Description:
Blueprint: H1 2-18, H2 23-33, H3 38-59, H4 61-69, H5 91-96, H6 98-101, E1 111-115, E2 123-127, H7 129-145, E3 154-158, H8 166-178, E4 181-185, H9 194-204, E5 208-212, H10 213-226, E6 235-239, H11 245-255, E7 259-265, E8 269-274, E9 281-283, E10 288-293, E11 305-311, E12 322-330, E13 343-350, E14 355-356, E15 362-363, H12 365-371, E16 380-387, E17 390-396, H13 403-417, E18 422-427, E19 442-444
Parallel strand pairs: 3-4, 3-5, 5-6, 6-7, 16-19, 17-18
Antiparallel strand pairs: 1-2, 7-8, 8-9, 9-13, 10-11, 11-12, 12-13, 14-15, 16-17
Amino acid sequence: MYEPLVRHALFPAYETIVKRRGTAAHIAEYERGQWLDRKSLDALQLRKLNELLDHCWRHVPFLQRHWREHGVRPGALTSVAELAAYPTLTKAHISANYDDMVATPWKGRTLTKVTGGSTGDPFRFEYTMDVYARRTAVMWRGYGWGGASLGTRTAYLWGTGLRKGGWGGFKDRLYHGAFNRRFFDAFSLSEANIDERIEEIVRYRPKAVVGYVTPVAVVARRMIETGKTLSGVRGVLTGAEALHGPQRRDIEQAFGCPVFNTYGSREVMLMASECDRHQGLHVNADHLVFETLDSAGAPVVGSSGDVAVTDLHNYGMPMVRYLNGDRATYAGTACACGRGLPLLASIDGRVLDLIETPDGRHVPGEFFVYVMLDWPDVKQWQVVQTAPDAVQFRLVVPQPWTAERRDKLTAKVQATAGAAMRVEIIEVDSIASTPSGKRRLTISLANADMAA
């Protein structure tokens, strides 16, 4: 009874009357939009895109200069594909031209957010209250596919959500409690408190679980090891990091329900998510333009490419063809669920997570996930490319590794990365998370300049 009360009364009243946001209306819009056929969806996306580009040509000084310098001139597009003629946009562009990236009619009226990202370098950007409401609406659509609809009793294994104490902490607990969700701090999860944290989640009796991939997978693995179970969960929604096959299997075994992967970022929030057919992640194409680009900057389908995203509703600081540092692969096929939203076959991780071999090939993080399956006693691990011809394995292990184990791991890596790749194996007490609380499995310091 409480779920429909939140969904149909409490949340709409709070957003519409208290906060004076159009979130409830946007939720209804996006619920309809997911079922548009591809032709109608393309037409909707093109209309929104042309309206945004026209706004930029009139009100965003840096984009006007940036586009003209690359030979682009004003004019309506006849297809979304023509957006490929526009140059891409980077964090460096935005930071260096910040004031001229804010649309002139919106100066002084936007919201500001700062993200450290996976590299830890602060990045500031702006957005409007309306686009915040739209992003919230499209998020609830994607979460609903995984069983975590508005009002569902949900446990969040997340890094943010609650202030710790005082009046602010009380208000946060009251707010989240009213909407039937509880946050469990993923940042403080450790070997010493993991069993206690699992007991807290079990006592909460959630119907859905939402969390970063790594802490959810760590909890799942511990549940399997100790025989702990949690019944009644409809789905586990993962995000913030690439989800690999072994992690998905552990989570589904531990929680006894399907995993629904999601993909988003602080700059635009949710971009894609899985439905119950699990044939890929549906891109929110009625809300944004999502491109994957090859090394020459041309859109590519069926192979991994750099992600370029255009939020169709952020008129305060429009980010058109914004390179967020991630890589993904379009499926090129439609989902059997009947939604017109296109599919991503996979989220391939950050550009910085790709390990480059001495002969110029790229090894994805997925390779190392499967390599490490041979050593299930390893509690945590991380691979860091410290030089063009060297990788370092950082391992949290219960006992020191023998020379035989080290040689075997080295041979496995060199069989794929080449004999010229040097492998260093060090044992550490713990592996640090990023400033945003995520734990990256692979890091390429050799390509650190790509972060710009």
